[in-house]
Amino acid sequence: MREIGLKEIEDIALGAALLGAGGGGDPYIGKLVALGAVRECGPVKLLSPEEVADDALIAPIAMMGAPTILCEKGIGGTEYQTLYDTMSQFFGRKIDAFMPMEAGGVNSMLPIAAAARLGLPLVDVDGMGRAFPELQMVTFTMGGISATPMALTDEKGNNVIFRTITNKWTEELARAVTMSCGGSVSVSLYPMNGAQMKQYGVHGIVTKSEELGAAIRRIKECTEGTPEENFLKFTDGIFIFKGKISDVLRETRGAFNFGKVVLSGIQECRGKEAVVTFQNENLCAEVDGEILGTVPDLICLVDAETFTPVPTDALKYGKRVLVVGLPCYHSWRSEAGLELVGPKYFGIDTEYIPIEIRAAGAKNAGQEVQINV
Q1: What is the pTM (predicted TM-score) of this model?
Q2: Which of 293, 359, 303, 312 is nearest to 106 (CA)?
Q3: What is the end-to-end Cα distance of the chain in Å, rounded?
């Protein structure tokens, strides 16, 4: 057990924004919410999964909807208590701890704020190891854990609890209510016991986010290698492209941010063009028409100078960015994982190929390359 204070929140927000792969909400908004809660209520206890009893009741906390809408709507302040009360009443017992559902600028921060305001510990685990746009897209679905009972509330005080027959149905019904509530809501879903959390969760996600954030913050203090080389080394990142944003097409539809960003190559990529498509999170990266990365691997855009992650709702014409790929959590590369979050689910007409293999093929284009999968 250790504590999450103001300094830790700064690094967690930065690192989780990278793992959010462009989604998960605005890291600045999320950070403000968490910092305000910790300043008022004190630091949060962070438990490792192994410190949680097998029969403990764990409840994830998250925001559902389009990230751009959350920036305008904000959070009312009573949502955490409403979610806690709704879930506790359903089970007839108190919730023992909160946990994040995914990594991302907002969804890594809201569980910290909720834990601080309600005096509960936070567990260092999530259900993705990154961010995905739909709520059935978690490792817990592969483990047969139900998304419901799911509690949903908005900033006005509307409150719903769902019982559904599949996690996909939870997504469909909750998305419809989210649209009626203005496009973003607070939710608690996938309640589970400690044993289930340990078996199917992605362990150490909060700590990993904090370590990544600290590395990005200190990137220019390194005395060996270039800042870009050190960034790729610290993150296990794979270089895809470097360019200036020449066009952004974005629309909010069905409580999702859909769109694509077009990049004109700079420096070593001069004369080339890249396109990154997204649905809240970045889904596919192409360079001169060749696919170099797809979900479930992470496709991340970071500022070319500071290496600060750039979420999809902050993409702007003229910004210079580095496009980087990160290998996903190993479970997503299984048959069950690819059925949930593979490229074909999102309408991308390609088989999934691990990003490190695609990158090796591009690097050795024109040469005979032997790759064993």
Answers
A1: 0.93
A2: 312
A3: 39
